[in-house]
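User: What would this chain look like folded?
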Amino acid sequence: MSEPRTITDPADPRLADYTGLTDVELRRRREPAEGLFIAEGEKVIRRALAAGYRMRSMLLTSKWLEVMGDVIAEADAPVHVVEPGLAEAVTGYHVHRGALASMERKPLPDAADVLAGARRVAVLEGLVDHTNLGAIFRSAAALGMDAVLLSPDCADPLYRRAVKVSMGAVFAVPYARLDPWPAALDTVREAGFTLLALTPADTAVDLRTLTPDRLPRAALMLGAEGDGLTPRAIAAAHHPVRIPMAHGIDSLNVGAAAAVAFYAVSTATP
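Assistant: Here's the prediction, encoded as structure tokens.
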């Protein structure tokens, strides 16, 4: 058990992992380089621990000591207790969930290893919005997707906002980077997957006509909000596919489109 220690100085070096959490560019550079990520809220911290991530430290306001008592009892990492105002001074925002943990990252697996036991995967290109990324991971976990593959320029799934929006689903769904892009899509093809590129283009095939739930292995490709998949990515797919729209709507938010498509490929037994 780690004995909780009260900290009163926002410049205390023991709080270094938690400084400037709202500075996206800083955290995007710093966290992967230092091998850490931040888990926010009781559920997310518990899910990170259950997924085998090692805790570096925990930052709590006093009212969360009882709630997190069992976690503290098992922790072999420092537990820092601070007042809410100090937490805000350190992190840059009001930590209304009252509990943060700095966790150690795991090495990313190779894409081929992630694909080996998978039948349904999502392939994401250029998704830099952490909210959309987190929502897609949450849908992927809920709707039975086996893995997520990311182009090199996709956002970090372990960035605090993505983890929070996913409700910790980023810990439940294996993911890997596909690099170089889009040449590394050959890895997906060679693993026996049919690549389905989601696009609102009129020339795309109605997703339902392919009966994607009956494909032995399906990889759904989704692009960034607004721009969508690049022409190179669409050209690398077996089929460009679309979700039919009504009432003059031309497309869905990428998070909503992902959920619809995940359901379409995962509902029936092949």
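The radius of gyration is 20 Å. If you want, I can go into more detail on any region.
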